[in-house]
Design goal:
Shape: globular
Number of strands: 13
Helix content: 25-40%
Order of helices and strands: EHEEHHEHEEHEHEHHHHHEHEEHEEH
Number of helices: 14
DNA sequence: TCTGGGGTCCTAGGACCC
DNA sequence: TCTGGGGTCCTAGGACCC
């Protein structure tokens, strides 16, 4: 049996753990740059605030509605997420973290186990040990467990176990609510006569080939019938295949120096993640996104998205050293920059990632490479001890006018000594 | 004025090899 | 006038997830 444990309104719940005044109030957590709503409390959802609503559209009404906003605080959420996974590890050694707020538990228990009781115990322990409320869904496959979890969240106990015969439930479930079926696929499926999950589950293999669906769709259908068909671990967090760091500019960038500094900062952050994974990268994709052309009346739903412009860079040798990576990507910024244009976002995607000490070690004899590696290690050590960003390469800039806005940031009481809560008695 | 960030997988098509 | 067959690897683009 698989249990999917999923935190309720995770980011908002994290904020509430250390600020109980937020309990019972409509709360929303904003994306980076205080851009739009990415997590909502139940009270906030009840007010009709949709996911992805831009902050500036809500700010004026916030007072009247009693809405409370927080900037996203990933340091806090990441730490509480780790604590939840740790807690879940007391139920089974086989915990598969799927995202920051959900995990699959692989359970080897008798078929007549009281799943409702077990689910209630999991919820109670996670709530007591971390302060985060969650829902639990039980089923023989991940896809069915997702559905069970959704049903559970609508029940008072927050727990639901998929019955042996899921047909009545799946017949009532619109196909777009199935895990792995997005907007586009749902559209194609409807045209092919598939409107509910049970119809999808029971189509024969020829059906999927005739309509040119990818094999992933066939796997989803199998999973809906209770036949496991997804990978043991869909995302291997210890060994990423690519590492991406990108940010919107706090205000549009118009100077080459802004672009260069932002890209250097993103590349430095990406390199740090790379070293943490114990890996090296063979190259990078450096990209920028322009603001909408002038005269289009600002951002509307139709034009707020513009294409990315990118340049691919191959490193002289696979590396994780910040100076080597910065030197390699530096010319890319100049290639992408056109004077007079306004840029809204920039990013660096490291690719060709492999474990350090593999074939890349052929080049480890290079003294320059070794020196840079040592320097990067020292950088990481200093920043780990004295806080992120204590030491950085000057290429990232010191003024950082392009930095993002986080005006409503909460403290980090679990990861910074200076932010630890103080009790007076 | 102001709309996030980070991943994965699959497929088709081109380049290249023998 | 007439020129095979079977592979692999890489990349871009499209889809999905949270």
């Amino acid at each position: 049996m698989i249990a999917l444990v999923d935190a309720n309104s995770f980011y908002v719940s994290c904020e509430r753990v250390f600020d109980p005044r937020l309990e019972g109030r409509p709360v929303a957590v904003l994306s980076n740059n205080d851009g739009c709503v990415i997590s909502r409390s139940a009270e906030c959802k009840a007010l009709g605030v949709e996911m992805g609503t831009p902050y500036f559209k809500l700010r004026d009404r916030a007072k009247a509605l009693g809405l409370v906003f927080r900037s996203s605080n990933y340091e806090l959420y990441g730490d509480l997420s780790a604590r939840i996974v740790q807690t879940l590890g007391t139920f089974t050694p086989d915990v598969e973290q799927y995202s920051i707020d959900e995990a699959f538990l692989h359970l080897s228990l008798p078929a007549d186990t009281d799943w409702d009781a077990l689910g209630a115990e999991i919820r109670a322990r996670v709530l007591r040990w971390t302060g985060i409320p969650c829902g639990v869904g039980f089923a023989p496959t991940r896809t069915l467990a997702k559905i069970a979890n959704h049903i559970g969240k609508r029940r008072p106990g927050g727990v639901f176990a998929m019955p042996a015969d899921p047909e009545p439930l799946l017949t009532k479930l619109p196909v777009e609510e199935v895990w792995g079926v997005g907007r586009r696929l749902a559209e194609r499926m409807r045209r092919a006569g598939v409107r509910d999950a049970w119809t999808l589950a029971t189509r024969p293999p020829e059906f999927f080939r005739r309509h040119r669906f990818a094999v992933t769709v066939e796997r989803t259908a199998l999973e809906l019938r209770g036949v496991p068909a997804t990978d043991a671990d869909p995302i291997d967090r210890e060994n990423p295949q690519s590492i991406n760091v990108s940010r919107m500019f706090g205000r549009p960038a118009t100077e080459l120096a802004d672009l260069e500094e932002a890209l250097a900062a993103h590349a430095s952050a990406a390199a740090e993640k790379l070293r943490k994974a114990g890996s090296v990268a063979a190259g990078a994709n450096v990209y920028v996104q322009e603001c909408a052309p002038p005269g289009t009346g600002g951002w509307t739903d139709a034009n707020w998205w513009t294409p990315f412009l990118s340049a691919t860079v191959a490193f002289p040798a696979p590396t994780a050293a910040t100076p080597a990576i910065l030197a390699a990507i530096r010319p890319a910024a100049a290639r992408l920059f056109v004077a007079g244009r306004r840029y809204r976002r920039s990013g660096v995607l490291l690719c060709g990632i492999e474990p350090a000490g593999g074939a890349a070690d052929l080049f480890a004899g290079d003294p320059a490479e070794t020196k840079e590696a040592k320097l990067s290690a020292a950088l990481d050590a200093v920043n780990a001890k004295f806080g992120r960003g204590t030491v950085f390469l000057a290429a990232s800039g010191t003024k950082r006018p392009w930095r993002m806005k986080r005006d409503l940031l909460s403290p980090c009481p679990t990861t910074r000594w200076s932010d630890v809560l103080v009790a007076k008695c």
